[in-house]
């Protein structure tokens, strides 16, 4: 196994499991993404290295790289005077991920408001709980946006 980066097998296995669950990735995509996280010096990993390191077919690597590129978890770069593409974990993904979370919370707030306006039944206990929930969503949105500005 010719690797251009050093990995810790235990941490790698933990990362594969974690990212597979977090991003709902198939096993090979999770392995590729986790492997790229160990590229601390940002040298980039080639397609051929993935094929060799994971002992899988080129089509499997291609399919899983396409999935990771489409989900913006990774990026690819063609270096000057080379035909090879080099892959990197997308450093901006943390920001992208939390922007999507904020958008989902904002969408939920709008939906809750629409439902509340449509609802004809009065229930003070339900309304109080809903206000607490909406307050939690708004505070979370505010906190995430504040942190994103620092990223």
Write structural notes for this entry.
This protein is mostly helical. It folds into two domains: 9-90, Arc Repressor Mutant, subunit A, CATH 1.10.10.10; 94-150. The chain is built from six helices and three strands, in the order H-H-E-H-H-E-E-H-H. Strands 1-3-2 form a three-stranded antiparallel beta sheet. Strand 2 and strand 3 (85-89) form a beta hairpin. Helix 1 crosses helix 2 and helix 5 (93-118) packs antiparallel against helix 6. The two termini are 36 Å apart. The model has no long low-confidence stretch (mean pLDDT 93).
Considering the chains and any ligands shown, give keywords for the structure:
Arc Repressor Mutant, subunit A; 66% helix; 3-stranded antiparallel β-sheet; 151 residues; elongated; 3 strands; mainly alpha; 2 domains
Mind telling me the C-alpha Rg? 21 Å
Taken as a percent bin, the fraction of beta residues is: 5-15%
H and E string: HHEHHEEHH
Q: How helix-rich are the residues, as a percent range?
A: 55-70%
Under CATH at level 1, the class of the largest domain stands as Mainly Alpha
Strand-pairing-aware structural class: mainly alpha
CATH superfamily grouping of the largest domain: Winged helix-like DNA-binding domain superfamily/Winged helix DNA-binding domain
Q: How many domains make up the 3D coordinates? A: 2
Query: Would you report the number of β strands?
Result: 3
| CATH architecture annotation name of the largest domain | Orthogonal Bundle
Assign an overall shape. elongated
Q: Supply the number of helical segments.
A: 6
Strand order of the largest sheet: 1-3-2
For the biggest sheet, the summary is:
3 strands, antiparallel
Write the CATH fold name of the largest domain: Arc Repressor Mutant, subunit A
Quote the average pLDDT. Answer: 93
């Amino acid at each position: 196994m010719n690797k251009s980066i050093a990995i810790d097998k235990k941490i790698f296995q933990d990362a594969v499991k974690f990212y597979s669950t977090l991003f709902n990735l198939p096993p090979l995509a999770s392995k590729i993404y986790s492997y790229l996280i160990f590229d601390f010096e940002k040298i980039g990993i080639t397609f051929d290295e993935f094929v060799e390191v994971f002992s899988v077919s080129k089509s499997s690597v291609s399919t899983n790289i396409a999935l990771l590129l489409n989900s913006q978890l990774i990026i690819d770069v063609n270096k000057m005077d080379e035909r090879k593409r080099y892959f990197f974990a997308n450093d901006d993904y943390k920001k992208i991920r939390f922007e999507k979370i904020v958008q989902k919370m904002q969408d939920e707030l709008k939906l809750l408001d629409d439902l509340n306006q449509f609802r004809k039944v009065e229930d003070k206990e339900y309304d109080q709980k809903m206000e607490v929930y909406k307050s939690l969503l708004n505070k979370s949105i505010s906190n995430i946006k504040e942190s994103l500005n620092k990223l």
